[in-house]
Amino acid sequence: MSVAFVKEPNEDQVEALPERDLGTEPNFVTPRGLRLLDREIETNEAALDDARAKGDKIAMAMINRDLRYWRARRSTAQVVAPQADSDLVQFGHAVEIRRPNGRTQTFRIVGIDEADPPQGRISYLSPLARQLVGKEEGDTVRAGPDDAEIVAIRLDEDAPIP
What does the UniProt keyword field contain (predicted)? Predict the structure, then answer.
């Protein structure tokens, strides 16, 4: 049998990794979100240098894939700031809602890569964000199984990146 038909494992060969999904929605970001994208690129570039120094080809392949993703996200990022003179909920706003049991929660509407629901940052594509956008204080929106009232809309400065 010809050697051309035998697949011998090669320690220098790394299987091609599938690309990360970039999605088809616009890549809206807050100013904080843009800084986060820049930080991801810097972090991955440093990790790539480290993997190269160690000769870790698997890590290099994974980091290169992630770098392609973050660089593509950075190149398509559209910084969006809410209009200061509007009373309507917009991308970038922090919105406080009151649930029927009296509990209040605050959510900031942000871009896809910046979303962190446990920290109160929800993607503009999330069902709750879609319910909130275009509403004003006093309006009622569907928030999970119940309705909730919008009690405040703020244009807080973005928190520093830890």
Answer: Elongation factor, Protein biosynthesis
